Amino acid sequence: MAIDYLRLSLTDRCNLNCIYCTPLEKNRFLAHEEVLTHEETARAARAFVKAGVRKIRLTGGEPLIKKDITRLVGMLKVIQGLEELALTTNGIYISEMADGLRAAGLDRVNISIDTLKKEKFKMITGSDGFDAVWRGIEKSLKAGFKAVKLNVILMKGINDDEIADFARLSVDYPLTVRFIEFFPTNKRSASLTGALIRTEEVKKRIEASFGALSEAAPVESGGPARGYTLAGARGGLGFISGRSDNFCCACNRVRMDCSGKIYPCLFAGATHDLRPLLRGTADDAALSEYVKGLFLVKSKYNKTSTHAGHIEMSSIGG
Description:
With 318 residues, the chain is of the alpha/beta class. The protein has one domain (5-316): Aldolase class I (TIM Barrel), CATH 3.20.20.70. The protein contains 11 helices and 12 strands. Strands 7-8-9-6-5-4-3-2-1-10-11-12 form a 12-stranded mixed β-sheet. Helix 1 packs parallel to helix 2, helix 3 runs parallel beside helix 5 and helix 6 (163-172) crosses helix 8 (199-210). The chain starts with a strand and ends with a helix.
């Protein structure tokens, strides 16, 4: 599978404190000088695009707390050869930034929201920000993005009672709701024992409420999500089954964190560091060749790797 997708983390900081994401023991964040500047980030992105990347997704932490992110979006959008620029956000600030981001060139937005109930939102995230996120969803739908998707991490006993409510959003709104299997990544999330609810069970519950799911045609960009629609729906449903399925053979992505460390695979840990090259004497051609070389490393790792390094999802955005 050709590598054509870069997930680019802009910060290791977040304005929420989600029970499955932010580790309780996290008390150190990267210093300002450790984080790539916008210019360094854009230069790295150009090297990835020259090496074959066609889609970039901005993540975090929470990318919308990054200063001047709209300017960075504009810098990335003009990279020759880049076909799509997307962003994943917790939605707290998207309502006030959606128009500017779209004008700067952002194509798509994914908003993470795990409950439609205010009290439960505070329990999951540590924030009273539900209304802000919902406003952000509505604003994003009006801003002219090519697609708006909602990411829902399902946790048995916590939010699986809302499966039908989330599915109904795909009927009522022109958006895609993506149900993601729970995957513990640190001690805090590992304490949520029994939280996994598998995709097949989710599908059964949806069909019990709405009738048969129709499988959608695969998108050209690939990825782990499997798409479906409900009869008469304005939008769609997606399922990401990281625990049930092994989709390593179809993986088309690499990740770079905000300090320049490269993760060819979620089961590899950081294997390369681009920051010394970005701040050294390497020219653009050398950067691109370096990136092409790390693409070759990706094939050494997969879901069954036993030598995987620790990965903090709150810092690289999934």
